[in-house]
Automatic annotation (TrEMBL):
Any Pfam family the entry gives: MenC_N
Cofactor(s) this protein cannot do without: a divalent metal cation
UniProt name for this protein: o-succinylbenzoate synthase
Keyword Magnesium carried by entry: yes
The reaction(s) this protein catalyses: (1R,6R)-6-hydroxy-2-succinyl-cyclohexa-2,4-diene-1-carboxylate = 2-succinylbenzoate + H2O
EC number: 4.2.1.113
Active site residues per record: 131 (proton donor), 233 (proton acceptor)
Length: 320
């Protein structure tokens, strides 16, 4: 007998959490639970407002349609709704034992601008990620310079989320010593267009990583000068098969692949840590978003002190 249950969750985010210029108070999503005999599989379906094209209601409708097919003995049928396809396919992969248990829980710490807090946090870290583009480009450049100078073992990943014009990007780079730029592993999406980001990477020597660009129609994974990495956010991309295909293509093109968070619950994040150990071994993940939340969900992230909400606290919204 196959059984499927959908649960709805709401998790408060820490006050002041901003996603793409909006303040967000809470993260909402669905958990899918599949059961077949003694086997069980879970998945998370949580479109990210401001990033996903679909609403949670649209994702729920797509998951329910897919679950009815599965419940009646069918296989996975993709809907084209990325969060629905990701959540359902990863639940199936867990159910069938396709998703290995082994996980890589070492993730790159994610930092935002306050310099005093940054020094304390980053001392002794080999690699950290910092958001830039939220303040003046000159200030970002000075801060990156200061950090790389003061912490000689530190390497940085930067993420500008397409904030800069070519001139702003140049202002940033002007404040970072060319000799120190070698410790910038990459800068995600510096400019508003991929063309401008490519040009900036070549002129500054600071490699680009694609994130937003990889979700645009017509994007092709390819080796190109100045581009070193591809950020993969499964919740925004689609089914496990689509995620695997994208990772394989990028690896074949010589790009580093970084599995990254779409602000999933601890359940979704632990699955991404397993996905990374399986498909991108040796590439440090970008999963440090649990600290934006006030609680964990169903499965704990090792070392997190946040309270854990059990399945019993969840609201069941649908089953078949
Ligand atoms: O990738 C990471 O290290 C953390 C996740 C992150 O930066 C992020 C989280 C939610 C939405 C967008 C982004 C982003 O990479 O731009
Ligand atoms: Mg990014």
């Amino acid at each position: 007998m196959r059984r499927a249950t959908l649960y709805r969750y709401q998790l408060p985010l820490v006050p002041g959490t901003v996603l793409r210029d909006r303040r967000v108070a809470e993260r909402e999503g669905l958990l899918v639970q599949l059961r077949h005999g003694a086997a069980e599989g879970w998945g998370e379906v949580a479109p990210l407002p401001g990033f996903s094209a679909e609403t949670l209601a649209e994702a729920q409708a797509a998951v329910q349609a897919g679950l009815r097919v599965w419940q009646a003995g069918g296989g996975f049928s993709g809907s084209g709704v990325p969060s629905a396809d990701w959540g359902l396919s990863i639940a199936l992969a867990e159910l069938t034992g396709t998703l290995p248990e082994a996980a890589d829980f070492t993730t790159v710490p994610l930092c935002h601008g306050d310099p005093d807090a940054l020094f304390a946090r980053l001392a002794g870290q080999p690699l950290a990620k910092m958001k830039v583009g939220l303040y003046e480009a000159v200030r970002d450049g000075m801060l990156v310079q200061l950090l790389l100078e003061a912490l000689p073992d530190l390497h940085l990943r930067l993420d500008a989320n397409r904030s800069w014009t070519p001139e702003k990007a140049r202002q940033f780079a002007r404040y970072v010593d060319p000799a120190l730029r070698a410790r910038i592993a990459f800068l995600e999406e510096p400019c508003r267009t991929p063309q401008a980001s490519r040009a900036f990477a070549q002129e500054s020597g600071i490699p680009t990583a694609w994130d937003e660009s990889a979700r645009e129609a017509g994007f092709r994974v390819q080796a190109e000068p100045g581009v070193t990495a591809l950020v993969v956010k499964p919740m925004l991309l689609g089914s496990l098969a689509q995620v695997q295909a994208r990772i394989r293509e990028a690896q074949a093109a010589g790009l580093a692949v970084v599995i990254s968070s779409s602000v999933e619950s601890s359940l979704g994040l632990t699955q991404l840590a397993r996905l990374a150990a399986w498909l991108t071994p040796g590439s440090a993940t970008g999963l440090d978003t649990l600290s934006l939340m006030a609680a964990q969900l169903v499965r704990p992230w090792p070392g997190s002190a946040l309270p854990l909400r059990p399945v019993a606290d969840l609201q069941e919204v649908w089953s078949c």
